[in-house]
């Protein structure tokens, strides 16, 4: 029994010694190794941890640790295994939960990325010439649908045509859509022709041209045995289209066919005061410049106050050279100097202004003839275009102006201005019928683009449009 009691006491004493050994504090270096290792975010960090530092000093082990037997270290590690495994298991579970449930958050310590770099990464830069419209990257990220852009030329064409219809609204009340209400539901008889004649005269088509239209329309109705007035309207529309087609000869085509070896293409602008001649020069110069032409202006109106300054403003605005002399100088002398300068500077188009004059003043008309003679001394074919500017609002007085200017200097082109502010636009048919002089441009507004190259088909389509455009 005493032996058994002694053995039991020995074992109990041995267990106490082991307990003391387990309570022995773990050295600082060993406690660090027992902590759960952090999970690296990428392989690069793992490599950096595992790789020994090149300049690191060898670890010096304290004497008390070297004295510990290898068996004691193993026993101590076994005692910490249970708690270490439990802590590591909880840590792994927490990390896995965060990776599965939490979204990736930006690193607050990372340097801020510039907005331009983000845009480059999401949507590379595009050239302005490569696409009509670039969708902002923010809209692409938000999931907005990318809509195919509307082509600019189509939009521009529709816009210009709608503006033309709006500018002709007052004339269209008598012509075009005014005819629609006149012919609708009517029988073809003398009363219809009388009403049509009245409407043409009110629109300032002129007596001679009106009679010609009525006669041709009557013959066509009899020949086709028409009884429906609406069918007669289509014939009237085509007759008026044919009348304008014979004067539809755009000036840019004439300039393109000019031989530059003979010097610049010279445009001599003539007309009475107040028709918009100088303004037309400025708009025309800008359009030719946009077409790639080198343009020069000559301030030949040396009589009207501020005429030279007005032309110089147009030149400064568009970076176009202006040849001028003080007010009161000889107009022919100014144009002579301008033509010489244009030839030496290799100018493509020279536009020469002249003083406004009434068509019934013989002395002023003779002065205009002198200008032509002086120009021909430098260039026998100059001027290549003698353009008369007419105000559409003057009605039949424009016919008188065209007749006398044509007799004096031989007109080669006509610009009809201020069509947007008058109901007398029918004078264009009278001009086309009586003179057969090409109508180069029409003015339908104040903007530079409102000086429109005349197009007979567009003009008729806009005139006969049934869409009402109210003028404010």
CATH class descriptor name of the domain at 251-454? Alpha Beta
* Secondary-structure class: alpha/beta
SSE order, one letter for each helix or strand: HHHHHHHHHHHHHHEHEHEHEHEHEHEEH
- Poorly predicted regions: 18-89, 93-106, 110-158, 467-472
Distance N to C terminus: 130 Å
Number of strands: 8
Number of distinct helices: 21
Helix content: 40-55%
Mean pLDDT: 74
> What is the radius of gyration computed over CA atoms, rounded to a whole number of angstroms?
47 Å
- Widest β-sheet, arrangement of strands: 3-2-4-1-5-6-7-8
CATH superfamily of the domain at 251-454: P-loop containing nucleotide triphosphate hydrolases
Structure characteristics:
alpha/beta, about 475 residues, 21 helices, 8-stranded mixed beta sheet, Rossmann fold
